[in-house]
Amino acid sequence: MAAHEKKDWRFKIAHREAWIGVGLVLFNFLWWFGFAYGLGSKPVSDYQYIWGMPAWFFYSCIIGSLIMIVLVIVVVKAFFKEVPFEEGQEEEKS
Amino acid sequence: MNWDVVIPLLVFLLFIFAIGFWASRHIAAKSNFLQEYFLGSRELGGLVLAMTMIATYGSASSFVGGPGAAYSEGLGWVLLSMSQVATGYFVLMILGKKFAIKARQYKAITLVDYLKGRYNSKAVVLLSAVSIIIFLFSAMTAQWVGGARLIESLTGLSYTSALFIFAFAVIIYVIIGGFRAVAVTDALQGIVMFVGTLIILVGTIIAGGGMGNIMSDLANENPNLVSPFGHDGSLTPLYVSSFWILVGVGVVGLPQVAVRAMSYKDAKGMHRALIIGTIVVAFMMFGMHLVGVMARPILPGIEVADSVMPTITMEVLPAWLAGVVLAAPMAAIMSTVDSLLLLVSSTVVKDVYLNYVNPKATRKKVKTMSFAVTALLGIAVFALALSPPDLLIWLNLFAFGGLESAFIWPVVLGLYWAKGNKYGAMASIIAGVASYSIIHNIWPEPFGMHTVTVPVLLSFLSYVTASLLTARKAASLS
């Protein structure tokens, strides 16, 4: 069982995709945090506004979400591989 | 009674029932009753998977409590809510394919089944089953109270009759339709939530005279409302960031979310769900919380936070459209409650009854048990919700935090760290739940972070330490 598990080619793909998830969430956090508190820590009277919203809010919450959506789409289309989930099909590829 | 508002809600309820009946036909047709009833025979496609994850997770707090908090705190609370965008992709990427494959290998139908397959330990099974039953029961009660309050405020019915309608609707379709009914109604409810958010967002911006106008009204009232620091400057970066654990990455440890990560059909469905989920959750969380903030200049002086959302909807939209939008929080609550009800029921039937009480139960017996336990649980929650505890968000977050501290490491490290063993899992669950309960009661928000942070850390340390300390013993036994 243990040896079989190590050799299962599907897990290599699964592990890589999990690390991609960790990377995405770190990037997401840094972007969110950086713009919110980088631009938002000024006195409110010095705020710049974009489309009527404070710049920190616009970049952190709106652009940040849009970037995450685009990144998820790109990552899934470019790096995620389809693998079978049922047993007994795993010898077909590899 | 305001019929313009009530009619869309009634139509919505009828649809839900129709789905329940449709799903019950599947239950009769499938040979594996348990797998169909509690997991929909692992046949979910991308859209339904994405929607059921978001709808299960997005609850009364996203549609009622959250906008209420945003109303009093300002844009800082919208910023906080955006930590939830991570749930759209993180859960499915982390649990991902490995969880789906392992769950099939173990023939797991519940999260506890998975833990049983991974750790092979009666103690782990019982500990996790008990924590699920206790915590999710309190979460469910909080949600039912929210649902009934909402019906009460929309229709003018008494709280008791509102609760009765809500309970009756949910119990019926969950009992007859099982997981498939829950997932498909979740998809419908998710779409209702999405469309509702869009309508109310646009309506509120127009009613406030445009975004620029609303923001300058807010800044004139109190400049802090347009800063990231909350109305009195008390939302520190550390505190807001700690919500990334509670409502962002920690969601991986929620059983009602994790069980969905074993219900999808194939990798293609999962890929689609990742994309759809991220888009929908980002838009919904952003829209609903921003509406809460923008409601402030339009309708100043709302005292009860939970009534912000219904009040602003009735104010800025024509009545029939308000009915459509108000079906959204209704949908959010129902879609959470139905999943919790089914999950607690599966824990009782599959994890406790079939594992330890009567492993040889016949198919017919299991079927009767499943229906009966679901019904009994529903009635018990109804009884509890009749004299409800006051703080909706509090109870709900208590359950979330407690479950996350208990399960995040046994699930995640169980998947990816070969050295993790049952002693680690036990230590982790005990340390997580105990420290969460203690810190929550005697030392809330330690070091200015949300209560969940320290327990999650402690449960990680317990898992790793206990696994390493017992590694030699476990190796010599096997």
UniProtKB/TrEMBL annotation, chain A:
Q: What is this protein called?
A: Uncharacterized membrane protein YhdT
* Assigned keywords, A-Z: Membrane, Transmembrane, Transmembrane helix
Keyword Transmembrane assigned to the entry: answer is: yes
Cross-referenced InterPro entries = DUF997
| TM helices/strands, residue ranges | 18-37, 57-80
Keyword Membrane assigned = yes
* Entry superkingdom: Bacteria
UniProtKB/TrEMBL annotation, chain B:
Q: Any idea where this protein resides?
A: Membrane
Query: How does the protein associate with the membrane?
Result: Multi-pass membrane protein
- Coiled coil feature spans: none
Report one GO cellular component. plasma membrane
GO MF annotations for this entry?
A: pantothenate transmembrane transporter activity; sodium ion transmembrane transporter activity
Principal location class: membrane
Q: Where are the transmembrane segments?
A: 6-23, 44-63, 75-95, 124-145, 157-179, 191-215, 235-254, 274-299, 319-345, 366-386, 392-416, 423-443, 449-471
Supply the alphabetized keyword list: Cell membrane, Membrane, Transmembrane, Transmembrane helix, Transport
What Pfam families is this protein classified in? Answer: SSF
From the UniProt record, give one GO term of the biological process aspect. sodium ion export across plasma membrane
Against InterPro entries, the record matches this protein to: Na/Glc_symporter_sf, Na/pantothenate_symporter, Na/solute_symporter, Na/solute_symporter_CS, Sodium:Solute_Symporter
Keyword Membrane in the entry? The reply is: yes
Q: Does the keyword Cell membrane apply?
A: yes
Q: Record's family?
A: Belongs to the sodium:solute symporter (SSF) (TC 2.A.21) family.
Protein name (database record): Sodium/pantothenate symporter
What organism does the record attribute this protein to? Alteribacillus persepolensis
